[in-house]
């Protein structure tokens, strides 16, 4: 029997959770691989998600968020200041290195907004399925009448 580790897919995609849950049923949970900066992906509603990235020490000017071709890219780069060059640290444990984190977005998943609060960058996402893709109810005609056209005009008979 062959087993597959789906953890990398969970860590870098948003909106595919139902598919991965079906594929992952019965497999034991694996711990997340440590990476910089740490982040969470949470489902906040039926069609809404939130990515939270720990960016302690970064300001809004140091961060950029870009969506291109269904890929969400979050970049962080500290702008060097004069004070940082003259500081003498006995221990420096707060990382301030540049980073780039990419997330693949499912179809119809869009960025709703972003906020920086208490050292966490929150990116809110929403899945907006077009009306044409949503399921619809079809009425059943119980009488012996001819079937009605559901959409548009009834097809003309060929002569």
From TrEMBL:
InterPro entries to which the protein is assigned, alphabetical: A-crystallin/Hsp20_dom (IPR002068), ACD_IbpA/B (IPR037913), HSP20-like_chaperone (IPR008978)
Coiled-coil zones: none
Location of the SHSP domain: 30-143
Keyword Protease: no
Lineage: superkingdom: Bacteria
Keywords: Stress response
A Pfam match: HSP20
This protein's record includes keyword Heme: no
Family from the record: Belongs to the small heat shock protein (HSP20) family.
Name of the protein this chain belongs to: Hsp20 family protein
